[in-house]
Write a structure and sequence with these properties.
Structural class: mainly alpha
Strand content: under 5%
Distance between the termini: 25 Å
Radius of gyration: 36 Å
Number of strands: 0
Shape: globular
Helix content: 55-70%
Number of helices: 72
């Protein structure tokens, strides 16, 4: 088995990992190693932006800048900076004070109306995460932050106090247990086991064993669990009390009570002995601990203490220990910073040197990256840095990059100068961050000096030079107040007059637009550049201005003066034009632009293919298709100026998307007849076949595929579609599944056609799950290998490797296991192999081997490992694994504890899942937001109150898509507005309408000055959900007209548009209930433009019954409005006057878009009127066929939920009559349907045809979070 513990260092996968760039970003930025070349690769420009952050003025990407600036003024900026801080603390276990200060400043702006987890994050940052500060300085930050919490009224619970005590211990700050307990009692808080553990640790740090023992006795009396950490504290306490023998005796007590004497226990003892300068005792304990697994950070702690105490005789032994470990955790890597800060450069160098030679390449990257970062952070002497980094065979220039990250351009330039002096090439892009940072520092002299260095670089070509001038130098000078004339003068002094002319013009384009750029270039000669230098600026400005005329003129300048091929510019213009008109549903501008410029535009075939033309009028698509050229140099001839092949393929694809088989066939036949040599329509052919099969015409599908293959067999073979094209494989599998549903008798022939024609390899159509149940224990070794080889050959990695690894772990056959690994490496990911090894070693009783692989791989294996434990129902082994990995880095530890929560949730043990949160506290590990959200969901499902604040979903600028609002989102919003009634938070949690209205009545009785905003504030808190509707229903039932008006007229707390629209309808409904016809008439007359917001089917029905004249007036008002605002009237017609509905749709077909089909389907069921549903289906067939599937599936689901299975079966038959498959319904809907029929001992149509397969969904209530890992 010895070979296996070296697995991570010996498998080829690890040896193949490239040595990537070292330490590019303290902010977790990882990029590829810089390539020394004569050009600036595009990714290097992005690297520079990562290095300098928003300091870089990147006019070539104005949308990025605008996005970033706008987020600073919104809550998104808070979410971004706090989320970044969270990522750093969890992933890198460190944070810069500048980052902490930025988040703290934002929190103060918001008066700390932020979530609890973010407050705790800030508090944790003031401990040992902030590597750059001394403990005393960190302690001051802690005290200052704690005072702010109290100043702004942050609700402090026992978790805050536990974290505070932890930070005090990390910073070596003494605290009074009595004072802390007094504060907690005043707030009604009870200490938990973590609190007592921290008290014991505090007393032990002072050497006060008597006080610590009293706390321990109290814990015993209260039956509070005592962890190993308590014993570690007593070891420290006895050594601080100068009683090393008692400290050693604690180890014996641990063994007696059944606790493992871990590396942490020996670390505590050794550190205590070093403090006592008992170096002989240190040697003895080190010998005793040889069989104990110690982590790298524990060994480095000993090195630091020994060096501080002037004893280095043991250093060599400890270096060797680190080398034998074969890995470094993040905590250990961070300790390198402390060593360098103390000036022990040689110690840090030796640690890195020894470990780099023993770890895998991935870990080498992490260690080197951070070491180079720490060298720059501590401004170590340049000559010493050069010597150490060269000895490690690393790139010295990466130290300069790190210095730029830390905003220290002087140190960075000194490093680069040292490299140049030693003959190491310094490419020009190494200096680019200096241009930005000197510009930010208003240091014009050094800015120009840096540009001169760049210009002298022998590896710089004209295109790169202009890129630098446009992206960095010109913006930096502009930021210093220089105008065009002065910039031209500076460039002349440097000798860059011609290049700067082009750069200024492009800078004007980026900042001012096409018109100003055209004016500037009118009397200038452009310096030759490449297309890539212009393209990003061109596209971004085009999307911002939609100035297609001037964009086309600028494109002409690029073509005429620079000789550039401008097909990409033309495509960008057409693409923006289409998008602009499509969004506004107005194609007049497109027609006008094409009328004026059609002859000047040319597109390459591939450019035409990438255009999204689905919703574009056919006439415009045809005109655009005429712009396609054959080879980029001449117009493509087309018979009689008819449609080209790309145009026909596009039109055919559009018809296929609309399920219009006849139209698609028309275009398809034209394509094959007119262009017999054209072959790039293989996906179109497959889609045609799928539509044929969907219509029950399997033989025609087979003939079509054979026809394509006979025409273009060499093309299919040349492209290697049978083995490599995943998109093609997906379409073939779709055809297979479609045939299984629609034409089961033809499945074999269809599959044979697909494979024999060369569309796909046979093995890619099937899976290997049938082999998962083979009992490998009964097979011979060679039989197992033959089966494994067969499965890899046929199915690649589409089977479970777990069973093969388990076979040889169980039987303890290391050579055979290594053979399995060697066979699996080419097809399985290294994470999959490592995770399966860890799990199998744990399951079969080899925890040390499992831990060795888990730690030495330095990969984030925890999620996959936990998934496997949970999937195979090994929760007890997962608990052992969690205990074994307590010293893992915080990121891995969070995933392991999260896995424990998921495991307990799967077996419905919610209490144990909640107890895991206490483990987080004990280890001072921050649970991720996803962990808390998941646990909250588990509690809610079990009907248990959530005992913690649920964090919001973070939307960062990198992911600004609007997400659906959740209760967590609403709680976050509540904390960020000035509430007049903070007790609303409690009301919101209860959701008790009666309680809310009682509070409202009390405010009215007291004549509270803010009573008028009470209900708007409630709705602001609640947002868009059923609770808001319950409140509005209550107001209608109790005829609270004034309260409804307070909601509609309120401006202090504008509620969501959906809730406000509902409130308008409820208001009219309430007036109808009160027979206030005059008031109704007044309201409707005063709101003619948005009268549709006040109407519903039921309101219109009652209006016609009570006041026919007013109904007629309302009807005429609605019909005179925009068609999109006729939805309520159209819905009324569909229910009560179908002839009028059809008449309206003939005149205003656009009005169909406003129908709320989901509501109409529900109304049809409630009214027990199936004809209503039939009318909706009929309308959808005519005007919006793509929504037909949605209508059917939703109505079936509504009927199933109501238990009306006969009606559901009737709708299924109608759905199949429209050639739609109910089996394609959303997974949840289909599951409910099958379960409902099974529970009533009934069969669905497809089950009666193919046997009862309902057992497939019988496990519908299984844990949806647990999926079988690949």
């Amino acid at each position: 088995m010895a070979a296996l513990v070296k697995f991570c260092r010996t498998v080829p996968v690890f040896r193949q990992i490239a040595r990537v760039n070292r330490g590019l970003s303290y902010l977790a930025t990882t990029t590829k190693k810089t390539v020394l070349s004569n050009t600036i690769p595009k990714h290097n420009l992005q690297v520079i932006r990562n290095v300098v952050g928003n300091a870089a003025v990147t006019e070539s990407e104005p949308r990025y800048q605008e996005s970033y600036k706008s987020t600073e003024k919104s809550e998104l900026y808070w979410e971004k900076v706090s989320h970044d801080l969270d990522v750093l603390t969890n992933g890198y276990e460190r944070v810069l004070k500048s980052q902490y200060d930025k988040v703290l400043a934002e929190a103060e702006k918001m008066e700390f109306k932020i979530s609890k987890d973010k407050c705790l994050l800030l508090l944790r940052c003031t401990g040992d995460l902030m590597l750059e500060l001394e403990p005393s300085a960190r302690a001051e930050l802690t005290d200052s932050l704690w005072a702010k919490f109290k100043q702004y009224g942050v609700e402090l619970d026992h978790v805050f106090y536990n974290v505070l005590l932890t930070i005090y211990l990390q910073n070596g700050r003494k605290f009074s247990t009595a004072e802390i307990l007094g504060e907690m009692q005043e707030k009604g808080l009870q200490p938990n086991r973590v609190t007592y553990q921290r008290f014991i640790a505090g007393y032990c740090q002072e050497g006060n064993i008597e006080a610590a023992t009293q706390i321990l006795d109290h814990m015993k009396n209260e039956n509070i669990p005592i962890s190993a950490g308590v014993f570690h504290s007593f070891i420290t306490g006895h050594t601080r009390a100068k009683d090393p023998e008692s400290a050693k005796n604690v180890l014996n007590i641990m063994r007696e009570v059944g606790l493992e004497v871990s590396g942490a226990a020996y670390e505590a003892l050794l550190c205590g002995l070093i403090e006592l300068k008992d170096f002989d005792g240190v040697r003895e304990v080190l010998k005793e601990a040889q069989g104990v697994s110690m982590s790298p950070n524990q060994v480095i702690s000993l090195l630091i203490l020994l060096t501080k105490n002037g004893y280095t005789d043991l250093n060599e032994e400890l270096y060797e220990m680190l080398g034998r470990m074969g890995f470094m955790n993040q905590t250990a890597i961070n300790q390198l910073n402390e060593i360098l800060a103390l000036g022990y450069d040689d110690v840090a160098h030796q640690i890195v040197y020894r470990t780099l030679n023993s770890v895998n390449p991935r870990q080498q990257h992490y260690i080197s990256r951070d070491f180079l970062l720490f060298l720059a952070a501590n401004n170590r002497p340049v000559d010493k840095v050069y010597e150490m980094v060269n000895d490690l065979k690393e790139d010295v220039r990466d130290v300069a990059k790190n210095a730029f990250i830390l905003d220290n351009p002087d140190y960075a330039c000194n490093i680069l100068q040292k490299c140049a002096d030693e003959g190491i090439p310094v490419p020009p892009h190494c200096y680019l961050p200096a241009l930005v940072q000197y510009g930010n520092q208003n240091n014009k002299e050094k800015l120009i000096e840096t540009m001169k260095k760049i210009k002298k670089s022998p590896s710089l070509d004209n295109t790169d030079l202009i890129n630098i001038l446009v992206t960095f130098f010109t913006p930096a000078l502009t930021s210093l107040g220089e105008n065009t004339e002065s910039i031209e003068k500076i460039s002349a002094e440097i000798g860059l007059s011609k290049e700067m002319g082009t750069a200024i013009g492009l800078h004007i384009l980026a900042t001012s637009g096409f018109a100003d750029a055209l004016q500037y270039f009118s009397d200038k000669a452009l310096h030759p550049i490449q297309l890539s230098s212009v393209q990003d600026i061109f596209v971004n400005k085009l999307q911002a201005e939609h100035d297609w005329e001037n964009a086309l003129k600028f494109s002409k300048i690029c073509r005429d003066q620079l000789g550039l091929q401008t097909f990409n510019f033309n495509r960008s213009i057409i693409r923006d034009l289409i998008h602009f008109c499509n969004v506004r549903s107005d194609w007049a501008k497109a027609e006008e632009f094409l009328d004026n410029n059609e002859t000047q535009l040319r597109l390459l075939p591939n450019g035409f293919r990438t255009l999204a033309l689905d919703n574009v009028p056919t006439s415009i698509v045809q005109r655009i298709s005429k712009m396609v050229v054959a080879d980029g140099l001449r117009d493509k001839s087309s018979p009689n100026s008819e449609d080209g092949e790309e145009m026909l393929r596009k039109m055919c694809d559009m018809a296929l998307k609309s399920n219009d088989l006849d139209k698609a066939l028309e275009y398809y036949n034209q394509l094959e007849d007119k262009y017999p040599e054209y072959a790039f329509y293989y996906l179109t052919a497959l889609n045609m076949a799928a539509l044929y099969i969907g219509n029950g015409r399997a033989q025609e599908a087979i003939d079509l595929l054979k026809n394509y293959a006979s025409r273009h067999s060499s093309y299919l073979k040349q492209r290697g579609f049978d083995t490599t094209n995943n998109n093609l494989a997906y379409r073939c599998r779709f055809i297979k599944n479609e045939a299984s549903r629609k034409c089961p008798e033809s499945v074999d022939e269809i599959l044979k056609t697909l494979t024999s024609c060369g569309f796909i390899n046979e093995n890619r159509l099937y899976d290997a799950h049938k082999y998962d149940m083979v009992d490998l224990d009964t097979q011979s070794d060679e039989g197992v290998f033959e089966l494994l080889e067969e499965m890899i050959t046929k199915y690649s990695n589409n089977f479970d490797i777990h069973h093969f690894i388990a076979r040889f772990v169980k039987s303890e056959q290391p050579d055979q296991l290594q053979r399995v690994i060697d066979m699996a490496i080419p097809v399985f990911t290294e994470d999959a192999i490592l995770s399966n090894l860890v799990v199998n070693f744990m399951i079969h009783g080899h925890p040390k081997k499992a831990l060795k692989i888990f730690e030495s791989s330095n990969r984030q294996l925890a999620p996959q490992v936990c998934d496997l434990f949970i999937f195979y129902d090994k929760l007890n082994v997962l608990e052992q694994f969690a205990e074994l990995t307590k010293d893992s880095d915080k990121k891995q530890r969070d995933e392991i504890l999260f896995g424990l929560i998921r495991g307990h949730a799967k077996v419905k043990s919610v209490k144990k899942a909640l107890d895991v949160l206490v483990q987080y506290e004990e280890e001072n590990t921050v649970p991720k937001d996803k962990t808390l959200r998941y646990l909250a969901k588990v509690c809610e499902t079990a009907g248990i109150d959530v005992p913690f604040e649920v964090p919001a979903i973070v939307n960062t600028p990198e992911n600004v898509n609007v997400r659906n609002e959740t209760r967590a989102d609403n709680r976050r919003k509540v904390t960020q507005i000035d509430l007049k009634f903070p007790e609303l938070l409690e009301l919101f949690k209860d959701g008790d309408v009666e309680k809310i209205m009682e509070a409202k009545a009390k405010l009215d009785a007291e004549q509270h000055e803010n009573a008028a905003v009470f209900l708007p504030e409630v709705l602001k808190v609640i947002g868009k959900n059923d609770k808001a509707h319950k409140i509005l229903t209550y107001l209608r039932n109790n005829q609270k007209v004034e309260d409804l008006l307070s909601i509609l007229n309120n401006t202090s707390y504008p509620v969501s548009q959906s809730v406000k629209t509902t409130a308008k309808k409820v208001y009219i409904g309430t007036l109808q209930d009160m027979s206030e016809n005059a008031k109704i008439e007044e309201v409707l007359d005063n709101n003619k433009d948005d009268i549709h917001d006040y109407l519903s089917v039921n309101i219109l029905k009652k209006l016609k019954e009570d006041n026919p004249d007013l109904f007629s007036r309302v009807e005429s008002i609605v019909l005179s409005n925009d068609p999109s605002k006729m939805n309520s009237l159209l819905a009324y017609y569909i229910v009560y006057d179908y002839d009028k509905a059809k008449e309206l749709l003939q005149k205003q077909p656009e009005s169909v878009a406003g129908i709320k089909k989901k509501s109409m389907a529900s109304l049809a069921r409630i009214e027990k009127k199936e004809e209503i549903f039939d009318r909706i289906v009929d309308i959808t067939r005519q005007f919006n066929k793509t929504s037909l599937f949605y209508i059917y599936s939703h109505y079936i689901d509504v009927l199933v939920k109501a238990g009306e299975l006969d009606a559901a079966l009737n709708v299924i038959k109608k759905m199949e009559g429209d050639k739609l498959s109910p089996q394609d319904m959303h997974e949840g809907m289909l599951n409910r349907l099958e379960v409902a029929f099974k529970e009533n001992n009934r069969l669905l149509p497809w089950q009666s045809n193919a046997g009862d397969t309902s057992s497939d969904s019988s496990d519908s209530d299984s844990d949806s979070d647990v999926k079988k890992p690949k």
